[in-house]
Write the C-alpha cells for this entry.
Amino acid sequence: MRLHMTTVFQVKAKTKEHKKRQFGSQDWIWRLLWVPVFAAMMTKTVAAFAASAVCHIPSAVSTLTQDQIDTFSRAAQTSYPYDGYLLALSWSPAYCAKVDNSDRANSDSDFQCTANKFNFVVHGLWPEASDAPSLDEQPAFCKPTAPIAVNTLKAHLCTIPGVGLMHHEWAKHGSCAFSTPEEFLGRIEALRSKLRLPNFSVVADQPLTAGIVRDAFVLANPGLPRNAIMVATDKKNRLQEVRLCYDKAFHFTACQRRGAPDRIAIQVTRFRG
C-alpha cells in the first residue's frame, strides 16, 4: 500500500472519533517514512528560527513579596520520597492561545505572550516519587520559601518565562530537592542547555501523532530513549507539554506515566501573537 505524505497534512477532522483515530498496523511504515522528512524540515528551519527567537527582558524586573508567595503556598505534601525528576517543557503558543487580553495585563503572560514569541519553554523541574499512588501524593511545598533575588530572576527569565512562575515552581517543587532557588534554577538551565528542541512551529495546525512528537525529540537528541518522553495534551488533543524523565543522577529514565499514546492524532498550536 502506497502512503502519500501530503494526505496527513490535508486531512480534516470531521468528527470527534476522527480526531482520535489510530493509524493501525501500518503505523511503523508511516513513522519510517515521515521522520526523515521531519528531520529535514527541522534542519532547514533551525537557522531562521534561532534568528527570530530573541528574548526581550524588561529593563525593570521585580521580585514577589512574601505575602504574594504565601497566597499560593500550602502545607507540605511529602508522603513519599522522590527517586527521580520530570522536566516539563511547555509549548508556549498553546499557553498563549488561552490567554485573553485581560490576562495579558499579568506580567508573566505579557512577558511570554506579548513581549516575546517562544517555542518550548520550561514549566518546571519536578521531583517524582515512583511509589506515590497519585499526583496528589507527589512531593510538594516541602519548606517555606522567600522572595527570589532580582538578579537570579533575570538570569533565568528567558528559560522559565515568568517571575510568578519561577516563585511557584521553586515553592512547590524545587523546595523538595534543592537547597536554594539558585541551585534549582541552575539545574534547570543545565538540563535545558543539553537539549535540542524540535521546531514544531513549522508544522503547526497540522495533524500529527504523539508518536511523531516523540520521534522528533529522539532524532534531535541522540541517547534520549522514547520511553523517557511523556507527551501531554489537552482535552482536544492539542499539544501542551513534552515531559522528560530523569533518575536522581539526572540520567534519562523511563517515565512512570506515558501521557498520550503514540497513535493518537494531535495538533500543534501556532503562535498568533
About this structure: The first strand starts at residue 84 and ends at 91. Confidence is low (pLDDT under 50) at residues 1-26.
